[in-house]
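Check my protein:
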Amino acid sequence: MPNFKNRVEFRNTLVAMANGETTTNLIRCVYKALLRREADATGIEHWTRYISKHSAESFVAQLLKSEEYASLIYKDEVERSEIARIATLTSSMVKSKLTIVDIGSVDLPNTPHMWAELANHCPVHVIGFDPLDEPKDEVSYPDFGKFGLTRTTKNVALGDGHTHTLHVNSDASTSSFFELDVREPYEHLSTLTTVSSMQIPTSRMDDINLASPIDLLKMDIQGAELMVLEHALQTLKNVGTIYIEAGFTSYYKEQPLMPEIDIFLRSHGFRLVDIFPAHYPFIGITEVLTRDTLMWGDLYYIKETADEQVLASQALIAATLFNKANLAAYLLSHTSKR
């Protein structure tokens, strides 16, 4: 959420993003971005009249001056202060470097990255897996956060140890070991096509010599998550936090969905903390884009443990990556730092 310092820039960005949208969609979009809630019918009616007399930019400016938005900003400032306090306390407890295993990774961009906040509190090492990426020995990013980051890239496809067909789709980020099977007119997904395929051997995660412990396991592999997990039983014993994409509605043939992944992870000592959902609208029916179907979500799990080092890394990740100050404090309460 932006603060008061970048109001003008954020206002201009919102207006640019909404250019060409219907007035109702514009109002819905800005409410979600600024007030973090759905626009109510009364609000839509009021602001529709306002925009017709003034402008979209003026509408955004009015919301930025509202008491509701100001209260959210104040709450954010208090929350950020508490998160910073907990993160500082926790970083003194963690080992010298946090290890992240990123399956389905992409190379570090030149723009802010999700690991940057972690690297502001301790050194971070990322081991990335992507069969279509170039292998790289450890590369150092000393200016990445206050403590810097190192990254090793392995062009290895993780799976069950057998060879599988990789279906390369028109949007490369949706390429998968599973064939596309989009049966409804969902935005973007219904436009996808498979443009090529290739045979790719996979390796079991348990057969790869990975650093131990793994503070965070991140997975984004388009339906193959359960296959990888089922062949990582030994590795999972050394994992503290998992951040994994899972489908709620099938858009690949025979795709394992969230309930199967959840049952598996719970049976191996992990508990679900949160879900960050992605909803897709049906298209071609009305001019309004609505949050029709929960298509997929990113799931956040932590391992049940009494190990103080694991609890410390879980608390630091909870505070810095997920903004969960109370969870971080709760985890710390089970350590000698309580």
